[in-house]
């Protein structure tokens, strides 16, 4: 069981542009059965968490295309608002501390993985609380210059796996902890 921020990002570290568009992502070439693919990942996920912007993006895009909510997993949505739910989805709206929510998620996970869907600010809150084990990212060959940041914090990571999936460079990192001033100040050898 692990808590994982699995996401796609631009090379310059954005999850979406300033209008929350993912057009830059959907036009990329990808082997759906290739390295670090989504189906393999989601098959191990039993609970999920996302921020309000991500929730609204998924909800509104599904509504626009007439699709059903795609996740059978219980999903905690972080918000301070009273957002309309999607019928048939197992949603738990919350503004509780990430530690409290994470404990509830782990209790519900039955040994499966916890997916922090995004955005980056929410994933960073889990990391700052020492609750994020891994970041798994598919890096698209595109830059946006500005947008929604991938991971707005200072952390030490360890690269544990990498692969190419057609257009994407896929990388798995273990989260070691908050970047220490000592470590960042070490001279290069
Ligand atoms: N590239 C990808 O694979 C990928 C993955 C995920 C998301 N995305 C996209 O990236 C963008 C992410 O946007 P984002 O980073 O701005 O937003 P986000 O994390 O999805 O949502 C931010 C909102 O979440 C709520 N929130 C966050 N932390 C909270 C806490 N501790 N307690 C209560 N509420 C909390 C707040 O909502 P309230 O204002 O309601 O309080 C906040 O405004 C979206 O467009 C999304 O669709 C892309």
Salient structural properties:
189 residues, alpha/beta, Dihydrofolate Reductase, subunit A, eight-stranded mixed beta sheet, two-stranded antiparallel ribbon, 10 strands, 33% strand, binds NADP nicotinamide-adenine-dinucleotide phosphate
Structure in words:
- The protein is α/β, with parallel strands linked by helices.
- The protein is 25% helix and 33% strand.
- The chain has a single domain, classed as Dihydrofolate Reductase, subunit A (3-Layer(aba) Sandwich).
- The protein contains 6 helices and 10 strands; from the N terminus they run ββααβαββαβαββββα.
- It has an 8-stranded mixed beta sheet with strand order 5-4-3-6-1-7-10-9. Strands 2-8 form a two-stranded antiparallel sheet.
- β9 and β10 form a beta hairpin.
- The longest helix is centred in the first third of the chain and has 14 residues.
- It is globular, with a radius of gyration of 17 Å.
- Bound molecules: NADP nicotinamide-adenine-dinucleotide phosphate.
- The site of NADP nicotinamide-adenine-dinucleotide phosphate has 26 residues, from β1, β2, β3, α3 and β6.
Note the topology:
Elements: E1 3-10, E2 14-16, H1 23-26, H2 38-42, E3 45-51, H3 52-65, E4 75-78, E5 91-94, H4 98-109, E6 113-118, H5 120-128, E7 134-140, E8 148-149, E9 155-165, E10 168-178, H6 181-184
Bound molecules: NADP nicotinamide-adenine-dinucleotide phosphate.
């Amino acid at each position: 069981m692990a808590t994982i921020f699995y996401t796609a990002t631009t090379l310059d570290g954005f999850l979406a542009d300033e209008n929350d568009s993912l057009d830059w992502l959907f036009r990329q070439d990808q082997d759906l059965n290739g390295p670090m693919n989504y189906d393999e990942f989601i098959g191990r996920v039993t609970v999920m968490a996302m921020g309000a912007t991500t929730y609204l993006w998924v909800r509104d895009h599904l509504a626009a295309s007439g699709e059903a909510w795609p996740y059978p997993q219980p999903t905690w949505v972080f918000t301070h608002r009273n957002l309309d739910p999607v019928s048939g989805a197992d949603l738990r709206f919350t503004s509780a501390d990430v530690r409290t929510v994470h404990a509830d998620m782990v209790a519900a996970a039955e040994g499966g993985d916890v997916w922090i869907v995004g955005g980056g600010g929410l994933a960073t809150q889990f990391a700052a609380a020492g609750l994020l084990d891994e970041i798994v990212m598919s890096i698209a060959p595109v830059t946006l210059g500005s947008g929604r940041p991938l991971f707005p914090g200072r952390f030490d990571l360890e690269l544990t796996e990498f692969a190419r999936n057609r257009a994407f460079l896929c990388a798995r990192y273990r989260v070691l902890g908050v970047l220490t001033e000592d470590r960042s100040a070490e001279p290069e050898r």
